[in-house]
Amino acid sequence: MAVQVSLWHHYLAAARSRQAPRAQAFQGAEDVLLTVLERLQALDARFLVDYSRDAEAFQFALRSSEGPLDVQVPLRVDAQALLVQELEAAEPGQGPGCCRLGIPRDAAGLERWTTDDVFSASSEADAECCGHIVPSKVLRVLRELLVAAIVHCRHHGLIPPGSLSAASLEEEQLHLSLLVSGGWRKIRFNVVPVVRREHPGPALEGAQLSPGLPEGSLQRILSHGVDLVPASGQHWRTSTDYLLTRLLHALGSLPGHRLDGLCILDRVNHESWRDGGQSPGLSFSHLKAVLLWASALFPSPEDWAELQGAVYRLLVVLLSCLATQRLPHPLCPTHNLLGALGPDLHAVYPLVERFASQPEASLRIHATHLGRCPPPRLGHGIRALLQLPASDPAYWATAYFDVLLDKFQVFNIQDQDRVSAMHSVFQKTKKLGAGEG
Hints:
The structure is a single chain. The protein is about 45% helix and about 15% strand. It has 14 helices and ten strands. It has helices at about 1-15, 20-45, 55-60, 135-155, 215-220, 240-250, 260-275, 285-295, 305-325, 345-355, 380-385, 390, 400-405, 415-435; strands at about 70-75, 85, 100-105, 120, 130-135, 165, 175-180, 185-195, 225-230, 235-240. A hairpin with a 7-residue loop joins strand 4 (about 120) and strand 5. The protein is globular, with a radius of gyration of 24 Å. The two termini are about 35 Å apart.
């Protein structure tokens, strides 16, 4: 066990060693980007600069992957005065549907949003709505402003030479991509226009996460509301990315190894399961959602006191989600976050199971850190147990995941109520297995 513990801590130390330089790189790149966005706001007051980037910096330093970071540019518009016309989701489980942002006929103070560059008059006989704010038009204006702001900042020496590349701005996407230098590292930012709503619109079921978060933090974070971002050329969609990032940040204030477990799994995912980011598979966002669920399912500080056990609390939730091909969105549980992976999902499960059963090979930093590998922690047949929540949602509970922890030999809880509940579920699963036999 001492050798195993040493491996976990060696691996965590290697992952942590990257965090300080990554945070420094983010700060340098952010300074360049904010300078450009401040000029953009000066050119067109309809667009605002968002300075609340502390949680994003924290998240970027935590992860190993090099994927792009979203930068929101809020629209200076009273979202409460707009008509949010909801459209139904194309299929169940796709999360909140899209919407259109209408301008009421009798609205005051929205005149700047009825100009042709961002507005499309309604051709329908609608007594309430005179037209809509169109995402594709907003993106076009934002692109032109970014180009002008970059030219101005370069000409006046406000940003270092070569610190920003706008080569990908011409790509037709639902964001505007910029490659920004933060010293020795280049970071890709996706600039996204956003309309902020003070109330959440579609109900968020975040109460399920309350047990795992600092008291009062969930309600405080959800009071921010939700954001509307482009979903297509004509439609907007609800985005909870900001809320999830803030929730992750809140977990960092708790004692224990929650974020250390996420840090380890993200690096294993990047280097082993995704072959250095070359193969498709799980993203940091997937693992972040897994941690939020694991924190809610294992709210006791005792669960997170030991590093190896903390990693396995994420692993048992992740394995069950992969086996059932369903990872519920932490705030909208009807939305399956694994749906977009498609066929790639089948290739991920055996990689994660192999790591959970024999993690030592993936934890090697160099040859001296690995002696003889202990035998696998479990035999065949675990997948049937992992799939139980698909047939009965009642299994999505602490006692069920405690059974999985026991299977992986990392259930070290002394609380007698939890031990009893775990044994009760274990006996139930044994009866199910006997019945199937």
